[in-house]
Amino acid sequence: MLKVLFVCLGNICRSPMAEAVLRHKVKEAGLEHQISVDSAGTGDWHIGKPPHKGTRAVLDSFGISYEGMAARRVVPEDFGGFDYLICMDQSNGANVRKLPGSEKANIMFFMDLLPDESLREVPDPYFTGNFDEVYRLVDAGCSVLLDKLKSQI
């Protein structure tokens, strides 16, 4: 089983959106027994809370489930448990790399999946309010990621 962990700051906007979108794509492809998806944050402000209302609204508009999702923090055990740890921005990556055991993780950045985009980080809609832009990036990047994962199965 290939395991993917998306990481953002508080685990209520970007990373749960990516988790929900990739899970949806994995299910549509019939690969839920071969690919596992999760998300976490580097901060602890929202632990146990559902995705942000803006994230939920965008996901609802596309019929994508986020049922059962609750914010959690990245823990050192994640580093050995996931094949890919995908950070939404450079700050998230720097915070992850400060944690013990991070040298075991295959850390990458989400926007590396979309080299033709001018943005090099997924903007945080908690601050920008632009959940539609984040969805556009997440949807495109998750399609590229799913193709990459399929080639490894």
UniProtKB/TrEMBL annotation:
<protein>
    <recommendedName>
        <fullName>protein-tyrosine-phosphatase</fullName>
        <ecNumber>3.1.3.48</ecNumber>
    </recommendedName>
</protein>
<feature type="active site" description="Nucleophile">
    <location>
        <position position="8"/>
    </location>
</feature>
<keyword id="KW-0378">Hydrolase</keyword>
<dbReference type="InterPro" id="IPR036196">
    <property type="entry name" value="Ptyr_pPase_sf"/>
</dbReference>
<feature type="active site">
    <location>
        <position position="14"/>
    </location>
</feature>
<feature type="domain" description="Phosphotyrosine protein phosphatase I">
    <location>
        <begin position="2"/>
        <end position="148"/>
    </location>
</feature>
<feature type="active site" description="Proton donor">
    <location>
        <position position="124"/>
    </location>
</feature>
<dbReference type="InterPro" id="IPR017867">
    <property type="entry name" value="Tyr_phospatase_low_mol_wt"/>
</dbReference>
<dbReference type="Pfam" id="PF01451">
    <property type="entry name" value="LMWPc"/>
</dbReference>
<dbReference type="InterPro" id="IPR023485">
    <property type="entry name" value="Ptyr_pPase"/>
</dbReference>
<comment type="similarity">
    <text>Belongs to the low molecular weight phosphotyrosine protein phosphatase family.</text>
</comment>
<dbReference type="InterPro" id="IPR050438">
    <property type="entry name" value="LMW_PTPase"/>
</dbReference>
<dbReference type="GO" id="GO:0004725">
    <property type="term" value="F:protein tyrosine phosphatase activity"/>
</dbReference>
<keyword id="KW-0904">Protein phosphatase</keyword>
